[in-house]
Design goal:
42 strands, ten-stranded antiparallel β-sheet, alpha+beta, single chain, binds alpha-D-glucopyranose, 20 helices, globular, 27% helix
Length: 821
Amino acid sequence: MRYGYFDDEAREYVVTTPHTPYPWINYLGSERFFSLISHQAGGYSFFRDARMRRLTRYRYNNIPADAGGRYLYVNDGGDVWTPSWLPVKADLDTFEARHGLGYTRITGERNGVRVDTLHFVPLGEDAEIQKITVTNTSSETKDLTLFTFVEFCLWNAQDDQTNYQRNLSLAEVEIEQDGPYGSAIFHKTEYRERRDHYAVFAVNAHADGFDTDRDTFVGPFNGLGEASVPRAGTSAGSVASGWYPIGSHSVRVDLAPGESRDLVVVLGYVENPDEKWADDAHQLVNRERAHALLARFATSEQADEAFEALRTYWTGLLSTYSVTSGDEKLDRMVNVWNQYQCMVTFNMSRSASYFETGIGRGMGFRDSNQDLLGFVHLVPERARERIIDIASTQFPDGSAYHQYQPLTKRGNNDIGAGFNDDPLWLIAGVAAYIRETGDWSILDEPVPFDNAEGSEVPLFEHLTRSFGFTVANRGPHGLPLIGRADWNDCLNLNCFSTTPGESFQTTENKAGGVAESVFIATMFVKYGAEYADLAERRGLGDAASQARALVDEMREAVLTHGWDGKWFLRAYDFFGNPIGTDAKPEGKIWIEPQGFAVLAGIGVGTGPDDEEAPAIQALNSSAEMLGTPHGLVLQYPAYTTYQVELGEVSTYPPGYKENGGIFCHNNPWVIIGETVVGRGDIAFDYYKRITPAYREEISDVHRLEPYVYAQMIAGKEAVRHGEAKNSWLTGTAAWNFVAVSQHLLGVRPDFDGLVVDPQIGPEVPSFTVTRVARGATYVIDVTNSGERGARGSLVVDGTPIEGNLVPYAPAGATVRVAVTL
Ligand code: GLC
Ligand code: GLC
């Protein structure tokens, strides 16, 4: 069952009913000011940091769901409704929410009144704009009163939900009913003391009234759906003083049949680092910057222009990689939604979604490096900055803080270090950046350790330390020690926690164990080899050969001590016993080492028919034991009881999260692995199982947005198999984009050129990829037999070439590549 459709031309998902299984959201903003917005206009806004600079309130975990947003109430002769359906929930004659790239347009109609609201954050502005168009679609005159509404958050979102004894006496606002650009409300709580910022909420019209006190607007014991001011039909003129500050204007709109009227509503963030006050008595905030903002959005034409600029920006970004394949689902994921999700994930890391409250986590060291794989082609200069930020938190021994804070860019001591996969992801990020850009100068960039001034060394030295960290921390089988955990945060082999509620990631680890990770070993084979390539190209031939020897050693260790007979082992526990073995009743096989070993080229053999090759055996075992129609589960069989020597993985009921859920982040590793052995048909089949556009028809089962990946889909042993959770902010976005763009469609940047090596199977017999790389455009036409093991032969600008590397052309050139396989 569907709840909408893709409008590919407009690059929108159109939700056609308010009654989706869950709020389906979008993100506004791409620089400093961000908003989350659901198809029912729920959500909130913040400036840069979702915890420290929250502008508006949102209630996670609320009954009913999706409580808090930017709402517009309509009073039509006593009939009160909201075009976003929530919060009033009056029946609508038509409803539509269009989620586009950085904007959402919600249209609701009732009794001959249509209200269309376009929400977006313009480029270069710290503000969310609502461009509202009200139309009288009836044959009678309509005398309407509209009420805008937002509820302000007292900046620190954590404190806002906990510290009521202080907060309820703080709120202050200023009201400017007849300002130079309409009517404005200034939310200035704590401005009197140390803050130099406030929020402004304004409409570009004379407001007939206003409210700033929530209790007055809503009425005692009412919900937002029964708010008393819109029902009364006139604003009460309340002035917030303590308690709960809100912003609301009322605007009378009289419309003849067929007539429309536009309004522009602005929610802005203003900082006054110098002149805070407009007067010496410190009574009134300096409104200059707010007025300048409102002046830029004083007319609907100005709003339209800003919106056009946003559309153009996205068209430009998405022109770097596109495909036409004849499979509309594939095209819309590759060309629009997967790349869009990569950008949002880059902007948000894991901070603010409908599953992440924006007050919890900083930027993950490993997460950010992997996210980079998905957006480096879109905004390479921002990727460069991100790399330097991440590397600056590394420790001199090569280990890393697990997280760092985006505002301070410092390592986060609360979470600490000791996740032994972290260092290697830095190599992954840097190598991807150089392949995309050719900017070798980044390796010479001076970068400190743990942000300590004076400790700067060239970035390349950081990579050497990353590599060296794994080498220096190996266990009895020559495999890397796991530390607190590896990529799988829930595989806590040294933790042995028996205290309820204690964090598996941060509690004191038991010393003296020998827990090793086969997964980190496979990473080392992949990224150790990349490190050696970088060293070689820096003229460090000896270092490169030494590194390669160590990589060879590790590959051998994986094949000897990391092999269970039909698949790769997952790890060795504290006592040196294997994990991920057929010898145990549960957790027999784990996805991570199967996918990553094969994508690293371990045990690949001679091709798709080499049934003896460990890679093929591991992939076949994965298909058999991990496969489900909804994707591959993380491990199988899931643990049915808590295993103290394994940690958090066994805390989830079977089939959820890391305990046998379909953790979508690692499915692309297997997809890539299948392309490595030449089985594109299987790879594409796996791709379709988890990719949202292919799951749109089962939206009632999947339940989350059909346009973005979710972190997890409940696994085959779960009660709710097939149901997704944690949409939007997940490494799944980046890795699936890598899988589909670089391996299924097969166009991937390398140091000296674009490798063209499609492996997508017979279902996509021909396609064209347009790729902009280092300023040149490559138009790549593929004719594909889909035969297993077939590799393309290439004709570049009319001349056949050996191999599959198309050398980089000068910026501005257009190169035509014809591929047949
Ligand atoms: C979450 C974390 C990520 C981790 C994964 C598996 O997605 O953000 O860092 O690798 O879970 O545990
Ligand atoms: C929990 C989650 C996991 C996440 C980790 C770190 O263990 O299950 O997905 O990576 O927390 O925050």
